[in-house]
Specification:
mainly alpha; globular; 16 helices; two-stranded antiparallel ribbon; about 50% helix
């Protein structure tokens, strides 16, 4: 399930309620017929299908999986993926840092969730290499001086005040440094790289009671899961920042606007998009996503 999520950007078992999701897990009801899998190799899909098997005795073991052709292919790509980024790409990424405009507290929290759980790693290899290039001491953090040197190498002579402003916008944890997740959240192309399904999955990550809204209690619960200490006042402020309807909760549309995303189709709007049966699949059920892959059956 983790490999599916890392490659697609959303979990294999989707649904707008916990009951639907649990039913799909029990039936091993998942699909590769989403647009997110259009660039995923057949080897990767085959490996996932050998993991997502109902009978434990029929699943690949870790030792067997390492011999799969996908791992052999990925090992051969390691050197290529570790290559330095060119100057034009570096300049584009540093410009994204300069123009980063998501300044709402909850938006930062949501982007951290999206980057960590729902963003396909294959889409951000160049961003990972850019982070490594800036992180000169390989500490896992970008310091003020490292950011300054990175800007200079990209051709930007940025004043200290602007660098401080960039750090303040990107440094969600307020520790004076930029970690990997914060960096990716700031420079990723949200509109291009985050699918509708991944955005919906991120929304549902916070909508813990399946109400269709993110509430005060939902945010507190999610923060508690990650051992984040946050006051009631801070949570209230998070909601007020994005609660356009002024009803004390966050809708999916408000969630989109918070992340500067143009309106997209909410997967909940058409249950056929998510509630397809594996043994009775109609092309119209998945027409919205334009998929053309193989549909997985229970094994």
């Amino acid at each position: 399930a983790m490999m599916y999520q890392m490659l697609a950007g959303f979990p294999p078992f989707l649904g707008h309620t916990q009951k639907t999701i649990i039913d799909r897990i029990k039936k091993v009801n998942y699909s590769f017929r989403f647009r997110a899998f259009s660039e995923v190799s057949g080897e990767a899909k085959d490996l996932i299908s050998r993991f997502l098997v109902k009978n434990p005795s029929e699943r690949l073991t870790a030792k067997e999986a390492l011999k799969h052709s996908w791992f052999k292919q990925k090992r051969s790509q390691t050197t290529e993926e570790s290559q330095e980024i060119d100057h034009d790409e570096q300049r584009k990424i540093m410009e994204s840092l300069r123009t980063y405009s998501i300044n709402k507290v909850f938006a930062r929290e949501a982007m951290n969730v999206i980057v960590n759980l729902f963003l396909p790693r294959e889409k951000i290899v160049h961003l990972k290499n850019a982070f490594k290039a800036l992180d000169e001491d390989q500490s896992g953090m970008i310091t003020f001086e490292e950011l300054r040197r990175g800007m200079h190498e990209a051709g930007f002579e940025v004043a200290g005040e602007e660098l401080t402003a960039i750090m303040d916008k990107v440094d969600a944890r307020r520790n004076g440094k930029i970690n990997y997740t914060e960096f990716i959240a700031a420079v990723v192309d949200v509109q291009r790289d985050i699918s509708d399904q991944a955005l919906w999955a991120a929304f549902k990550h916070f909508d813990t009671d399946d109400s269709g809204y993110i509430t005060f209690e939902n945010i507190k619960q999610v923060m508690n899961r990650t051992a984040r200490e946050i006051s009631d006042e801070e949570v209230e402020d998070m909601i007020k920042e994005v609660d356009i309807a002024n009803d004390g909760r966050i809708s999916f549309r408000e969630f989109q606007l918070m992340l500067n995303i143009q309106e997209t189709k909410c997967p909940q709007d058409d249950e056929n998009d998510l509630n397809v049966e594996q043994n009775d699949t109609d092309e119209e059920d998945l027409e919205e996503f334009g998929e053309d892959g193989e549909f997985q059956h229970v094994r």
